[in-house]
Structures are given as structure tokens and as C-alpha cells.
Design goal:
homodimer; alpha/beta; Rossmann fold; 2 domains; 14% strand
């Protein structure tokens, strides 16, 4: 089932939660793993925990012998790396896979790589509330979808190798074009973040007059507001590289909200119930199918 | 610390999650507990699990000997009970406390009770994802705020007795007027529900063209959408008895969302970050203070 993925020299650029988790998950399939990060503490912990065989802050030193390079930095750093020096450092036939959260900008930037370098956009649909290499977990990818987006530098062989890589992590590879990916994640990830943040902003505003808002908030608020605690730099990076899709989904959200609000204000309880019942059913069905009912 | 609450004959109208949990939590402070519910299965389980000493579907039989009556049905059933026959069935000096999720309509209806009956509006800020008497849990109220709202039938003695009742359940009594309560829960509970439901409606709509929306949804969607699975009858009841406050909070939410969206679409990342950082800090501070960091 692993599709026989193997790397002689695997370089991971970015030793955070995702890069570190990937290192752990792929340990047995790589002869050598090199971790590249500008942060001394991240490099030290990667070495101490045995996630990597060596660590460096120098991109050239890290990637020039690699046959597989994973880009695990924030989205816009990935785009910069692809547009600037990375391509000239790589050997021919190297496979480059990124794991950034939005894909259109990255897949477009992959076209700037030299012919002979193979590149596939990737996005494992997984994560943790708290980031950082200290949270690295080799089981993070297991049974989770791993989206793969072809680029102009994706050969048929690169496609298969990227699939094998995703499977070797325990992930479920799903191929789609970058635009479709970005539209979907705008709905299931970026829109929820914005709603969560806006909810907290609304309550913060009210709580200036009455701090009891915070004291009475319970489980429903906890769940709905959880994403508002996400890393702001990471989310700003994601939103700014997916503005159009996010704005589209926001417009659709507003339309749906206006429909429910109209029924509520009009006191049309029958239509409100008729609208809420299929929503309840859809959420329950999703939880049954994908989350063991949670 | 329990304030010495004691009931000779405690009647609980509504043997669902909340009524059943309250019966469990107050067992030791009541000589006799009577459960009243029209549903035969709920009555049977309440008896089998020993939550109550007796059970009936007849309101008069259940409450006519009570010195304390707890109303634990949906909000509009509570309002109906208060406006219609309940008052005439009660003995003088009986304490009536409801535990409905909105308070203005209920507290107003308490004025219809005969002089001599004491009544206090109540709302324990707790719950569970799944309702029903099968989920009854005597620890549900522990260390959770228990809002108490005075009515025209609240004497000083009734106020103290209701506080003692809340404390005997392990709850933390907080007094406020019904209007303030309803405004707060519109923000921390009803607005989150509507956002959650609207998010699911938006994704359902998109998923008609591309079912992959559901397959890729992960933890962020799970948390933000969880409330959409709430019981529709219960939520319809709550929303319909708090329309004005919910509409007010929705308007404030829209304003906050429009501000963030404007920055996003304008590509003003600096202002976007400056807006998101205090939101992140507020959510983290709330979690630290009230939810052990969750």
C-alpha cells in the first residue's frame, strides 16, 4: 500500500509542526533526512528528537544533494523559494513537493523551476491547534486526505512518486487542480476561521460594556471560537494568497445568513425549521461519515 | 457552601437532559422528587435510574404537593405552563424556578402566577451535545454559572432559596435581569449557532457541485460546525423567544465581518494582522481563564 516510496536524500525546508511531523512519518523511507530552518532552536530540537540526520540554516547546503525536497514553510515563503534561488540549487530529476495551505500561487511559481526538476503541489488536510516542532507527530497524516495539485513541472513519474510519498505518510492522496483546491479550502477552512475570529471580535466588543459575556460563555462558544486562536501570521499568509475564493465564499455565506435571518425576524418559524432541519442532517451525516459521529 | 437548600417535595416538569441531570444533582437535598413528563419512556427511565421517586404525566398530580417546582421543558412550554393552569395547582409559598434558555418571556409570564407563589427565572450555563434523559449527568452544573433572573413574584426569601438551590447543584449563581441575560446569550450561544448552521448551509450548497468539500473538511470545520447539529425544535424555540437580541448581535457581527473583509479584499495585510492579533489574544485569554486553555 505504500507504493514503495523511497528517498536517498530527503530535504525538508521548514522545521515546524508540519515539517517535523513529516520527518517523523517518513523516517523509514529515507536514507538521509536534512532539516533546513533559520531558527536555531527548531534545528536543535529536530536533531535532539532524531527527526533529521542533519540540520542547517543554509538552503544550498541543505538541498544540493537531495533527490526529494519538501517545502514546509508558510505559503509566501514557498512562493519566494520557488521564484528565486531554489531551482538553481537542485539537481536534475529532483522531486519538489510543497505542503502549503493554498495552492494556486505555489503551483504557478513551480513553473519557474528549471526544466528537469519535477514539482507537485501538496496539501495534507491535517493539523493541530498548537504549532511548532515540539508538537511534531508522525501520525498526523494517517487516514487524512493529502491533496496533490499538478504543476507545469509535474511529469507522469513525478505524479506517481508524489502519490507514493503521500501514501507512505499514511495519507489518502487526492488529485485536483489548484483552483479547485483553493475554492474548497476557502469554504472548509478559511471561511470558518473568519467566522470564528469575527465572533470573538463581536463578543470582545460587547464585553467592553459587560464582562459577563466572557464569564457565561460555554461549550458552544468554545467550539465555534476555537479557530480564532490560530496563528495570525500563518492565517494572514493563507488569506492573502486566497483572497478571491474567500471573498466568493463569504458572499455565499452572507446570502445564506440573510435567508435565515429574514425568516427569524419575520417570525416564520415553520420555514426556519424547514431550513434548519436539512442543515442539521447534513452536519450529522458528515460527522458519521468522516468523524465517527463527533 | 450549599447554603442549606432543602425541599420536602420537589417536582420537575420535563424529564430531558436538564431535568434528569437536575434530579440527579439534587437527590440528597430533596425528601421526595416527582418527575412530570408526557413521554412514557422518559418517565420509565427516570424511575429505572432512580432519578425520581415517582413519575406522572399529570401536571396537577405532580405539582399539587410540591414546595419546589422546577420547569425544565422548552422555553415556550414553560411560558404556556406559567400563563395557563400551573399557578392554580400550586400551594402558597411554593418556589418555582425554570431553567429555560431565554428569560424575558418566561420572567414576564411569571407575573401571571398567583400572589403567594414565589418564582425566579434560572439558566444554568451548561449542556451536552446530545440531549435526552439517557444523557442525564449529576455533575453537569458543577462550577458552571447559574444565572438567576428576578421576576415580579421573587421575594427576598425566594431569591436566597434559588441561590441555595443553584449552589446545591454545584453551580455558581449570578443574578441579573432577564433582558441582560438574553442579550448575553444571544452573543455567546444563539449567534454561534446561527453562524455554525449558516456555515454548514454554505458548504452543503457548494457540495452539490463538488462532494469533495465534505471529504476534505477537517478539524477546523468540525469545531466551527458542531452547533449546527443541535436539536432544531429546541433552537427554533430559543431563537423565536430572543429574536430582537439575536438580530442586534447579528447586525454587530456583520459590521465586524465587513471590516475584516474590507481589509482582506483591499490587500491591507498590516491592518488585517493588527485586527486579528487582539482577537487571537482575547480568545486565548478567555480559554486560559475559563476553559483551562482549551
Amino acid at each position: 500500500m505504500t507504493g514503495g516510496f523511497h528517498a536517498r536524500n530527503l530535504a525538508i525546508v521548514g522545521m515546524g509542526l508540519m515539517g517535523g511531523s513529516l520527518a517523523l512519518a517518513i523516517r523509514a523511507q529515507a536514507d538521509q533526512i536534512v532539516g533546513i530552518d533559520s531558527d536555531e532552536r527548531a534545528r536543535r530540537i529536530a536533531l535532539e528528537r532524531g527527526l533529521v540526520d542533519s540540520a542547517t540554516d543554509d538552503l544550498y547546503t541543505g538541498v544540493n544533494r537531495a533527490d526529494v525536497v519538501i517545502l514546509a514553510t508558510p505559503v509566501r515563503v514557498i512562493v519566494e523559494l520557488l521564484r528565486m534561488q531554489l531551482g538553481s540549487y537542485l539537481r536534475s530529476n529532483t522531486l519538489v513537493v510543497d505542503i502549503g495551505s493554498t495552492k494556486q500561487d505555489i503551483v504557478a511559481a513551480m513553473a519557474a523551476l528549471p526544466i528537469g526538476v519535477n514539482a507537485v503541489g501538496g496539501h495534507p488536510m491535517t493539523g493541530k491547534e498548537n504549532g511548532g516542532i515540539d508538537e511534531a507527530d508522525g501520525r498526523l497524516f494517517r487516514n487524512r486526505p493529502f491533496v496533490l495539485c499538478p504543476s507545469r513541472r509535474t511529469t507522469p513519474a513525478a505524479r506517481l512518486r508524489a502519490q507514493a510519498l503521500a501514501q507512505s505518510l499514511g495519507g489518502l492522496p487526492i488529485e485536483m487542480d489548484a483552483e479547485r483546491h483553493d475554492h474548497i479550502v476557502a469554504g472548509i477552512s478559511h471561511l470558518p476561521y473568519l467566522l470564528s475570529a469575527t465572533l470573538v471580535a463581536t463578543i470582545s466588543n460587547r464585553a467592553q460594556d459587560d464582562a459577563t459575556f466572557w464569564a457565561l460563555a460555554a461549550g458552544g462558544f468554545r467550539d465555534t471560537s476555537r479557530l480564532a486562536a490560530s496563528d495570525v501570521t500563518m492565517m494572514g499568509d493563507i488569506l492573502s494568497t486566497n483572497t478571491q475564493a474567500v471573498a466568493t465564499l463569504l458572499a455565499q455565506f452572507r446570502m445564506q445568513l440573510a435567508m435565515l435571518e429574514t425568516m427569524l425576524i419575520a417570525g416564520d418559524e415553520e420555514r426556519l425549521s424547514e431550513s434548519l432541519l436539512p442543515i442539521q442532517a447534513a452536519r450529522k451525516e458528515w460527522a458519521q461519515k468522516y468523524e465517527n459521529g463527533r
